[in-house]
Amino acid sequence: MKVLVAVKRVIDYNVKVRVKPDNTGVDLTNVKMAMNPFCEIAVEEAVRLKEKGIATEVVVVSIGPQAAQEQIRTALALGADRGILIQTDEEIQSLAAAKLLKAVVDKEQPKLVILGKQAIDSDNNQTGQMLAALCGYPQGTFASEVVVEGEKVNVTREVDGGLVTVALNLPAVVTTDLRLNEPRYASLPNIMKAKKKPLETTTPADLGVDVAPRLTTLKVEAPAQRKAGIKVASVAELVDKLKNEAKVI
Ligand code: AMP
User: Fold this and answer.
1) How far is Cα 70 from Cα 144, in angstroms, rounded to an integer?
2) Would residue 156 count as lying in a domain?
């Protein structure tokens, strides 16, 4: 069974983002980039399926600038077999990403496609769902457990009220939630080995996909600064302030 995993290059989650002075977006100059954390979980799950003898090949795909090769190499060091970079310097919105991934699905014919539930830069939470719709595949989103059984995959999903388990016919699309697994670290020997694994580069034009943005960002603003708090001398004073100043009780 071939598994396709989509990995996105995003700002490292430890970085405090800066909004550009003209409010058109986030400043990416000299900012540390990394694999989207939910995509790391997707790679880990695919590699575990390979270790269990269920997956025969794990292919990772990333859409982005040439530098996104770094995230593909990371995935290869974690145990994926082969990489595909769809190289572009354009802004790729979720619908364009889903169309590009659909083109790769058509070519590669994976049985399972694993994506992150959302990219932490845009927080869209759309690509997996759009890809499933474009391919006509069933989808199991926000997965906290994935069990492949023959021609089916059982996906336990984290929803507001608890957990829901759905059975999907393969081929299917799964998106990962935080508790699906704990991704491993790449060992030095595996990082060296990953340099020799195949990485193919293609472009949106080669795949015949129009990636023109369909949404326009009007304004990007940093969250409002928190105001300094005050100290109260007693519980009575706190209750008084909550009642008479904040008027919340
Ligand atoms: P989003 O819908 O943008 O929040 O992204 C959800 C998931 O879709 C990510 O975790 C990735 O698995 C996949 N994805 C989105 N954009 C890209 C991209 N440019 N390259 C590869 N995968 C992507």
Assistant:
1) 27
2) yes
Strands (E) located in the chain: 2-6, 9-11, 33-35, 57-64, 82-87, 112-116, 139-149, 152-159, 162-169, 172-176, 199-202
Query: Domain residues for 141?
Result: 2-224
- Identify the CA nearest to 96 among candidates 165, 8, 14, 13: 8
Ligand 1 atom closest to the CA of 127, numbered from 1: 2
CATH number, domain at 104? 3.40.50.620
Q: What is the pLDDT of residue 148?
A: 97
Q: How confident is the model at residue 227 (pLDDT cuts 50, 70, 90)?
A: confident
Query: Whose CA is closest to atom 8 on ligand 1?
Result: 127
Ligand 1 contacts (CB < 6 A) are: 6-8, 36, 38-39, 42, 62-64, 92, 94, 97, 115-116, 118-119, 122, 124-128
Q: How far is the CA of 245 from the centre of ligand 1 (A)?
A: 46
Q: Are 106 and 118 in contact (CB under 8 A)?
A: no
Residue 232 within any structural domain of the chain = no
